[in-house]
Design a protein that fits this description.
The chain is mostly helical. It has a single domain, classed as Coenzyme PQQ synthesis protein D (PqqD) (Arc Repressor Mutant, subunit A). Helix content is 47%, strand content 10%. The protein is built from 3 helices and 2 strands; from the N terminus they run ββααα. A two-stranded antiparallel sheet has the order 1-2. α2 crosses α3. It is globular, with a radius of gyration of 13 Å. The mean pLDDT is 83.
Amino acid sequence: MLVPIRTDPRQKLGVYTLNRVGAVVWELLDGLRSVSQVAENLCQRFEIDQQIARRDTETFCQALLSFGAIELVSAGETKPS
């Protein structure tokens, strides 16, 4: 779960907290792994159904995209550090 801690919901900057699974997804979103690979990793770590892992990972990534915490990277493309 990603919970924004801010005073104005339109404010993009703020402090966010992640639960254990969200923290693992965040660590795995390195621009090298696909959403499918992240979901597969979750299946192995947490022994969850692949379809559920994929759906939840996609939903979480969409939330991160919606407020600019991550951006899409094309296959093989990495962003400079």
